[in-house]
Specification:
The protein is 33% helix and 13% strand. The protein is built from eleven helices and 13 strands. It has helices at 4-14, 45-48, 72-84, 96-99, 109-120, 151-164, 188-205, 222-229, 256-272, 310-326, 340-350, and strands at 19-21, 60-62, 89-91, 93-95, 124-125, 128-130, 171-174, 210-216, 239-244, 277-283, 294-296, 299-301, 331-332. The strands form three sheets. The chain has an eight-stranded mixed beta sheet with strand order 4-6-7-8-9-10-1-13. The chain has a three-stranded parallel beta sheet with strand order 2-3-5, with helices on one face. A two-stranded antiparallel ribbon has the order 11-12. The longest helix has 18 residues, at 188-205.
């Protein structure tokens, strides 16, 4: 077991650590096959590595703020705590359903406040934009995770939000986990069309925007393979993103995303010659159990008492970080997102002796405890973990 001092040092060093995999060798953009010009995120290793090969890994935490119902006071507490922890980036949702509940009527109040709070605390937002309003869906059942009936509706919203926050937000991630039926009920073809339309319209509003493919939950699975091989969707974006939740949610060994997924996706992107970066922009390990011997509602055997504790959570995130760095010679580190269970407990652990007026709510084991229409998902109530103080 770690001593309290060593544990605090560990979580301080790796709170919010996130891993980005760089997908391509340092080639000129003229060597790439692109539908849109290729832009690099300023904090990427491609841009930041010095002549000796050193790179400063930025840190980030995340909170979705679905539908903008959180108070700005709560957001400010989060921002202040993140700033004190040395966090430079926040991955969050910009909810289409929350902003444009009625077609053509926009409520920017919460997101204007979020952007202002981030700027005041020196934190850069790296949002994803997702979830369909009922008016844009094909029907009312699970409307928020349906593809819009017309992809141009989403594209026009992206154009509008990119124009509004030009100069304040530089990157836009197009949806969240589109290969996961919990968040996208459409096909890979429908998602490819969405990406192509939205990418063009974002660049109409902000020619310098960095475009991120929605983070994939299942790595180099059939969904992503189709996107990159059949539709060359990576030629429309600057970044392909993966999410890595081995063991508790995905059931994979902890090494799999780093030893197998990253090289496989890199190969697909290089084959398509798009020049896109690869980010692992969500990863995490919970400090709770769904059952005494089961990590989550999805499974995951638990054998040892030390598993799924705060101490081992810190160790696992350190392991993720090191495996990411070791997974490939062209892997880089930059901004990203640590799931709320990890981010909250890191912040709470290393600030315990100097309490801060903030903590995130714990993540549901199913990772979808709140429906995007603003109501509780009854199917997930049995999975819900106790929330920490807000």
């Amino acid at each position: 077991m770690l001593s309290r001092l060593k544990y605090r040092a560990l979580v301080s060093a790796f709170a919010g650590v996130f891993i980005f995999a760089r997908l391509v060798a340092a080639q000129g953009s003229a060597d790439f096959a692109r539908a849109l010009p290729l832009h690099r995120f300023p904090a990427s290793r491609l841009s930041q590595t010095d002549a000796r090969g050193f790179y400063h890994l930025a840190t980030a935490v995340g909170d979705d703020y679905f539908d903008g119902r959180d108070s700005i006071a709560r957001v400010n507490r989060h921002m202040q705590a993140a700033r004190q922890a040395g966090v430079k980036y926040l991955r969050c949702a910009s909810s289409w359903n929350g902003i444009e509940k009625t077609q053509g009527q926009y409520n920017w109040t919460f997101w204007d406040g979020l952007v202002r709070a981030a700027r005041n605390n020196g934190i850069e937002l790296i949002p994803y934009v997702a979830y369909t309003p009922e008016w844009a869906a094909r029907d009312s059942h699970d409307f928020w995770k349906q593809p819009p009936r017309d992809p141009d509706l989403y594209a026009e919203f992206l154009c509008r939000i990119a124009a509004r926050y030009r100069g304040a937000i530089r990157s836009w991630e197009l949806w969240n986990e589109p290969d996961n039926k919990d968040y996208w009920l459409g096909t890979s073809e429908e998602y490819a069309k969405l990406v192509m339309r939205a990418a063009v319209r974002i660049r109409d509003a902000n020619p310098d925007a960095v475009l991120v493919l929605g983070g994939m939950a299942y790595g180099p699975g059939p969904f992503l393979q189709t996107l990159l091989t059949a539709y060359s969707a990576d030629r429309y974006v600057d970044v392909v993103a993966l999410h890595a939740y081995p063991e508790p949610w995905g059931g994979e060994r902890a090494e799999i995303p780093f030893q197998e997924w990253i090289p496989a996706v890199r190969e697909m992107i290089e084959r398509d010659r798009s020049g896109a970066d690869l980010w692992v922009n969500e990863t995490g390990y919970p400090d709770y159990r769904f059952k005494p011997a089961q990590a989550s509602v999805y499974g995951g055997d638990v054998f040892y008492r030390y598993e799924h504790t705060r101490t081992y959570q810190a160790m696992m995130l350190l392991k993720f970080f090191l495996m990411g760095l070791a997974s490939d010679a062209s892997l880089g580190g930059t901004v990203g997102h640590i799931k709320r269970t990890a981010g909250a407990n890191f912040l709470r652990a290393f600030t315990r002796s100097v309490p801060l007026p903030f903590s995130y709510s714990t993540e549901n084991t199913s990772r979808s405890s709140t429906a995007r229409n603003g109501t509780k998902d009854a199917n997930n109530q049995t999975d819900r973990n106790v929330e920490v103080e807000r």
